[in-house]
Amino acid sequence: MSKDINVVVYQPRLCTDNEDFFWLPVWKYKSELRAAGYRIRRVHDLTSLPADSDFLLLGSRSFAKEWAADRREQLFGTLDQLRERTGKLIWCDVTDSTGTTQFQVLPHVDEYWKMSLLNSYDDYAVRYRGCRLHTDFYSLRYQIGDPVGDPPHLNHVPERSEFDEKVKLSWNQGFAYFGPFAWQQARLRKMAGKKLPEYRQGFTNPADERSRLLVARVGTTHSQKSVQESRRELMRLLKEADVLGDMEPVGYRQYYREMQEATGVFSPFGFGEVCYRDFELVRAGAVSIKQRMDHCRTWPNLWREGESYYDLNWDFSNLDEIIGRISENPGEAADRAAFGQEIYRNAVDSSESGEQFTERFKMLLSV
User: Fold this and answer.
1) How many CB atoms lie within 10 A of CB 77?
2) How confident is the model over 321-350, as pLDDT tens digits?
3) Could you give the 3-state DSSP secondary structure of residue 8?
4) At what angle do helices 182-192 and 17-28 cross, to 10 degrees?
5) Burial code of 251-266, b = ≥16 C-beta within 10 A, e = fewer?
6) Nearest Cα to 22, choosing from 93, 102, 128, 123?
7) What are the Cα distances from residue 315, in Å, to 22, 142, 146, 292?
8) Please, are residues 114 and 93 in contact by the beta-carbon 8 Å criterion?
9) What is the DSSP-derived secondary structure letter of residue 90?
10) Cα(31)–Cα(24) distance, rounded to whole angstroms?
């Protein structure tokens, strides 16, 4: 690379956990990116934008309030102005799911990055109940009636040409630390307003003796009614199967300890398909039991069918089969847990992690 590529990240001092976790690998691997020719700078407000930026990356959560009907056109105008002041303007969608897209920004930005994507454009040419594929499925299953396209900016069908040209798969929130003291560390980092040294406890070996078969500390109250009903059905079926003990909420440290003791941990869909529990359980050495993930793409991808997790049918029709299989063959479960952990460690906690992230960053910027 003949000259430095100047990349500016807009990250307000106070941002959501999702946005904080999304930017973490950029700061963690800043030296590797610098060695590859990328000069990464952070700005806390857009008035201090450097004049020589080749790329400006914006986190979507920082503009959440701008989607109000009376402010939306102002948002688009702001994006147009920023686009004139930088080489390329990139919108980073840091929402949890493959849905809840903000494709209305596509005409106003050069690229649109998202943490998880459905498999093709055709999947986005549909407006879903609850703005997500899985909420649409469960809304129909339980006849709940989640609204279609409400709010409309989260369910906008883009032009195919713009989608193909601009939409790219970035990375998910898995680069954050999800261990026993993860939330204390996140709070301290926010209070300090800067990156703190990470407390990192090693991964628990999946081959360790496990005193629990399954853990399912799953909340059954949810603002998305379709998600709430799907979780209630899952928990009702697990209660009928009589394979769990106490299922009431517990403190985070006990919850994490239980995952370290369990062979398998249930991690059902919530607002998104991918959630923090997915990474917590893999670090704890348990195998994931989760709805099938073959409808989407994400990176790092810990969900390899028949290899790294047990894939639940979305209607839970194979639940008893999965429970029986884990009970009768814990060695297979440990092997799948180990493979999922290997994928995760290689991506976020190995000697190659920085190089891999840098290569993905370069690919996304297409320089």
Assistant:
1) 11
2) 999 999 999 999 999 999 999 999 999 999
3) strand
4) 80
5) eeeebbebbbbbbbbb
6) 93
7) 31, 11, 18, 10
8) yes
9) E
10) 13
